Amino acid sequence: MNMLNKTAYTLVIAAVAVVSVPFNSEAVDDKFDVDEVSPLSPSFTAFKDTTPEGMVWQKVDVLSDEFNHQWDDTKWKRSNWNYSDTPVNMVDSNSGVKNGYLWIKASLDASTEERWFKTSRVHSKAKITFPMYTETRLKVAHIPAYNTFWLNNGDANDRDEIDIIEINSKPACGVNDEYPWQMNSQYFIVKEGETERNKSPWSTKHLSDGNTRKGVAWNEDYHVFGAWWKDDHTVQFYLNGEPAGKVVSHQPFTLEQELIWDLWTQDSPWVCGLPEKEELLDHKHNTMKVDWVRTWKLVSK
């Protein structure tokens, strides 16, 4: 959504707040377009509203942003720790807000053979715990790399982590041919170095026939990715307004978590990188663009 359209859309939101008409996917020729739903509630409530009786979704402003203006340093921060066994180098200068988007860019550092994949990571300053729902609309950087949106608190030896997406639209390792459509979602609970993990992959090919994003590859359009962190064991993932897999942990989640986006690569069968260095010079494909992020808490009426 370009800046002009986003500004107009923001004005429409104000009107909708006064005279809102719930979107009914069955009323529009059985088609469901996640871009047409109201921004006042989680997108899945327009597809199939499973909000518990007696509960409502309350917007969390410090974890929401339309990115229509400049970088908001009251909400967002960067971190520059690097993944091991990768050529990744996280730097502040490879992320920002411009033209209505949060952007994270992968660029080439030709001065080194070790950390030549310059990129960035963006965190929320605020943390949140269940019951909550968060979703983001983004378009991937179309290079062999993971575009991510996730929740985390802790470190390698002691953390809770919910990976809403790790997606690679251009796999380069000769396997994982479904990656251009596959949504990789998982969780980690790590206590004193002992790891519990489970995953729940999904695909745009699994969306309902009426969903306008059915079968659409990550690089072909913007997609909406969400997670309903229901309780201390359960996370339901969402893709373009529809349920998209679920995980249930054995140990409980015990930590409040931050929202995070980053862009990184690795020569491994699960990430399915690496890009050619020349690909990082292509400004049409080396940048992940985040249109917005919206977060709600589930509270009693």
Automatic annotation (TrEMBL):
Listed GO biological process terms: carbohydrate metabolic process
Kinase is among the record's keywords: no
Ranges of residues in domain GH16: 45-301
UniProt-listed Enzyme Commission number(s): 3.2.1.81
InterPro entries attached to this UniProt entry: Beta-glucanase-like, Beta_agarase, ConA-like_dom_sf
GO MF annotations, alphabetized: beta-agarase activity
Active site feature: 161, 166
Signal peptide annotation: 1-27
Alphabetized Gene3D superfamilies for the sequence: 2.60.120.200
UniProt keyword list: Glycosidase, Hydrolase, Signal
Stated family: Belongs to the glycosyl hydrolase 16 family.
Protein's name in the database: Beta-agarase C
Originating species: Paraglaciecola mesophila
